[in-house]
Amino acid sequence: MRLRGKKSKAAETIKDVTRTIRENKLKSRSSVSSWLFLVLLYSSSVLLVFLANKLQSEYVYQGGSSASAFNRTFADRSMEHIKQLSSIGVRMIGSDQNERLARDYLVRSLLEIRAKANGSVLVEVATQRTSGRFDTDFLGGLKNVYSNVTNVLCRISPREGSKSRSHALLLNSHFDTSIGTRGAGDDLSQVGVMLALAELFVTGKQHMSHALILLFNGAEESNWLAAHGFISNNSPITYVTPGEEAGNFPNWADSVKAVVNLEAIGSGGRELLTRTTSKSSSLVEAYKLATAYPRGNVVADEIFRSKIFPGETDLSVFRDFGRIPGMDIIFVENGYGYHAAEDRLDRLPPPSPPRE
Ligand SMILES: [Zn+2]
């Protein structure tokens, strides 16, 4: 009985071990299939995004004789500003190139644009030296303290209308660079577009109901300092155009209702709407309506949220410290030159704003 008992116990133990091995094999097989499924899902998503981008890029405006006069002029003006600013050299925060030369070029250009304004709009040009501090959760948590970073501002508003200056759309780009690059793509390409847009708005015949504020910020690469300085309203702005200030609305930041952040993590292709910080779809709808060739992709937003890509933009600062909804519109192609010496003028494709 005892021997038999021992035998049957041993047999049961062998059975248990065999069962466990079989179960482990099954688990391991199912774990392998889960991984395989995830890899396949990821690869097919990447492939789909790549193909979608390729197909959409077919519509890139290339300039040349087929381009309309308007597009040629807009493109030439944008490119001229990019050339001039790029010739200043690397523009790191605190450098003379950034704090004086680039700032002075922008102010000069905006004053020249202002001189062309038709009578229906008020054009104000201002600068800001701003200081402050703030915390972000970027890379596990960063404390930022800054002093005297530079902003150049232009507000274009209709002379008529009670709400013309109390409701403004903010357009933002940055003219500073990271180490060792002239930043022709990041972010001069967008600075050039904004300057050309300013000229279009002050000389065009289009009707404006609300103000447009153009913020050329001089400290994005060192963790979005200048954007924070503007939106937290912690330093006064200095008008370059005295006598024209809109006395009722001296705090420009308070009037901002939405922001379009123009960025680049590459230098070419078509601009891509990568994310919005609005809780509703209203901004996406407005973008779709106002854009001749809208182009957006939720994958970019997912990448930002997952924190796989260690990057952030001024848009988060406007959201977190100004409670302002907005969208990131970014150049993403030719990313190999991003934050590198290769981000230079001769690698920048012809400007391509296909808007009529
Ligand atoms: Zn940038």
From TrEMBL:
InterPro entries to which the protein is assigned, alphabetical: M28_fam, Peptidase_M28
UniProt keyword annotations, A-Z: Endoplasmic reticulum, Glycoprotein, Hydrolase, Membrane, Metal-binding, Metalloprotease, Protease, Transmembrane, Transmembrane helix, Zinc
Cofactor names: Zn(2+)
An MF annotation (GO) of this entry: metal ion binding
GO biological process: proteolysis
Keyword Protease set for record: yes
Major subcellular location class: endoplasmic reticulum
Compartment(s) of residence: Endoplasmic reticulum membrane
Transmembrane feature ranges: 32-52
Membrane-protein topology: Multi-pass membrane protein
Domain Peptidase M28: 151-351
A single cellular component GO annotation: endoplasmic reticulum membrane
Cited Gene3D superfamilies: Zn peptidases (3.40.630.10)
Protein family: Belongs to the peptidase M28 family.
UniProt protein name: Peptidase M28 domain-containing protein
Organism of derivation: Hanusia phi
